Fold these 4 entries.
Entry 1:
Amino acid sequence: MAMVPGCLALLPEYASLEDPVEELRAACLAAVAWLGEDVRVVASAQGTRVAASLLAEVGTAPVTSGEAAYLIVANGSACRSEKAPGHLDPRAAGYDEVLGASLTAPDPDALAGLDLQTAEELWADVAPVVEASELLRGATTVAVDYDDDPYGVRYWVARWDGAASRSLSPAP
């Protein structure tokens, strides 16, 4: 299982002569390639676009059935600085600290309990993390390949090994 951010700058249509997210892009592509060929995506609409682009760039496409690795597309708050898309919100750093610690632990219970109302106020796209949190139960290894907040938005690229093989069930 891996997580990448739904950063629009990763899409080809936002490319420029100089890549403003070169380090982030490299970490995302490495994580997506690490997943292998059968990948199921857990993401918002924007995250689904980013996932499709990254998967295509490594030569695979998302699957909808059968055994698969999971790619979660999510990010922390977009309110970490005055120039951030959501402008500065003093709650952003604390929210992201809890989210980051829960991702790296990993702590499925803490991830499942993330406050989605606060996330919305902080422009954090964490619903996919909450949806996929149970998949992290049993994960034993965490590699955080990227942890930074360029442009005032908190992004992580993380990979987990040892998570039990299971699928997401629809909510009751």
Entry 2:
Amino acid sequence: MSSSNHATIGGGCFWCLEAVYEEVSGVTDIVSGYAGGHVQSPSYRQVCSGTTGHAEVVQLTYDPSGIEYQDLLEVFFTTHNPTTKDREGADVGPQYRSIILYHDDEQRETAESLIENLEADGVFGDPIVTEVEPLDTFYRAEDKHQDYYERNSSQPYCQTVISPKVAKLRKKHADKLQGQATSPSS
């Protein structure tokens, strides 16, 4: 069995998710892309039209000895609003929907259980609209979308939208950041 696993999630702009998970311990690779749609090999322009059915997503490669899948999802739910359909902040359209694309039944069960617990605890005050679906095909986004925040952190969008999400990650999940002593059971 492989010593790494994959997780595929979407919660608004993929640049935001990529920047957040860049700091999470146990995440070994992040690829921005598209999933959940009906057009083969879509372009960014096609996905932005809102007609392909795809969501902007990131596909994470992670080492389960460094972080568990549930921890990745806890970061996901902390750093975006899972109660707004087809929207994250000012980004509006089905490509920005909140979605977890599971790779196996264990991931599906983990995602559904976490959502159920968050709902039962009334964490968000509004119903969670995050879709939980099997991953069919993941398409890598164009190169200009990879490592976007790292290359463009001083741009206004990055400063006003992405930087606050990274700050929230650092505040709420300091124990899951690279350079911190973590274990999957903590």
Entry 3:
Amino acid sequence: MRDLEEIIRELDAIESIKKLKARYFRFVDEKKHIELAALFTPDARLVTDGITWKSPTEFANTIRDLTGAAPSVHHGHMPEIDITGPDKATGIWAMEDLLTFPAGEDAPEGHHGYGQYRETYRKVQGQWLIDTLLLTRFRMDALDNWDANAA
């Protein structure tokens, strides 16, 4: 039988990982790309929609370049987090995102996406970080872009 201290340590780790992922979503939407990159281990493996990124910085910079100042909304739901060792954990998150762009010739299509993150986490110098991230989208619905000049 597990003792109370072990249970408390595990619950504390799970809450810390939930906060880590909440910051991930918030930093994407607040356009805090330097802070976003810092949520990952330096050698993190990131794969989104079949694209493998070379580094957390490349991943964050691509988000910056793709979305610019366009408003976005990213949500993570129903986390399934398992502590697999003193400094390791796994997680699965349901996700939903909305992204639209100012209307124009070169504007990409907006979308409302649904999918799932499968991740691993590693505790480095007392801080939980994302070590691997795999984003798979199950559905993408097109959204109309908006006219920034419309009243």
Entry 4:
Amino acid sequence: MRRGLRFVPLALLLAVLVELAVFLAVGRAVGFGAAVLAVFAASLLGMVLLRREGIRAWRGFQAAAQAGQPPGPRVTDGVVGLIGALLLATPGLLSGVLGVLLLVPPVRRLARSGVRRTAERRVSSMVAGDLFGPRRVRVHRGAPQPQPPSTGPTAADGGQTIEGEIVEPRQG
């Protein structure tokens, strides 16, 4: 993870340069006054949506916690909404377009599943189960491959085998 962090300043510089190039191109096409107005309007809309998405994410988390459901799906939806609103609030035309895209339901679903997969890879299987509920594991048939010792449940540990899939048992 630390290796990737050293590229953050370079990525931010590149993002600023791309935003500037897009702004200049749009400014030449529609006029600089209209481009500045579009950036200002998008940022203002982003700030309003940032507040709304933050409140929505918090209420979703609370509702899931009170209902005894795993909060992960609501949290990931809230994170994607907050990122979209934050990108929209950031001054820039390209970031505004990316922010609006993250707020469109089909794109939001794709981003939400990507955030979930990333979160599941970075935490233990027990924490992922607590966050997102039982997971399905795909089993590919073929020649057996040597596997490292598993930390998750198997059919022998009390998990259920359903058509080649191991489903983690629910905790208490």
